[in-house]
Amino acid sequence: MKLLATALTAILFLAGCDKAANASGYAANSKLKELTNLQELAAEARERNLPIMLTVGAEWCEFCHILREEVLDPMALGGDYDGKVVFMRYLSIDEHQPIPDMNGQPIRKDELARRYKADLTPTVIFIDGQGQKVAANIVGIANIELYTTLIHKHLNQAYEKMGNPLRLDAMPGQ
């Protein structure tokens, strides 16, 4: 009986390790950078007059994985977006280590997401270098094939609100 209990404990432990490895492995393989310091990112956004696009997600969220794999990673990998037309970061609400907020104060990522009304995952938030929302949130995935077009539409709204003359074509690659 003791041998059975030990074997069962080992199996459960290994299953938990495998799940943790898969979760952390996915984020490590993603091309989209994780948000680690909003204060520094905001300063750079102010300097370049570019919006910040925060994608709020979680490891357990299947739709978050789809969005990262099919839309956000290709956008980040191409090098045409991050730091050029927008600052793109992923905001994992699974991580509970505080990061510096807009004012340098420590904040947990799930609290930061709630501050911007991101109650569901995935949610894409658009803010300026002052931390003000400059376009409506995109909540969920209605049509993955048109998601980049939707992001472009929201970025154009952000540029207009920020007084930035930059505009993106509705369809990427045009």
UniProtKB/TrEMBL annotation:
Q: SUPFAM superfamilies this protein is in?
A: Thioredoxin-like
Keywords assigned by UniProt?
Signal
InterPro entries noted in UniProt: Thioredoxin-like_fold (IPR012336), Thioredoxin-like_sf (IPR036249), Thioredoxin_domain (IPR013766)
Q: Does the keyword Zinc apply?
A: no
Question: Where is each Thioredoxin domain found?
Answer: 14-156
Query: Which Pfam families does this one have?
Result: Thioredoxin_2 (PF13098)
Q: Where is the signal peptide?
A: 1-20
What name has this protein been given in UniProt?
DUF255 domain-containing protein
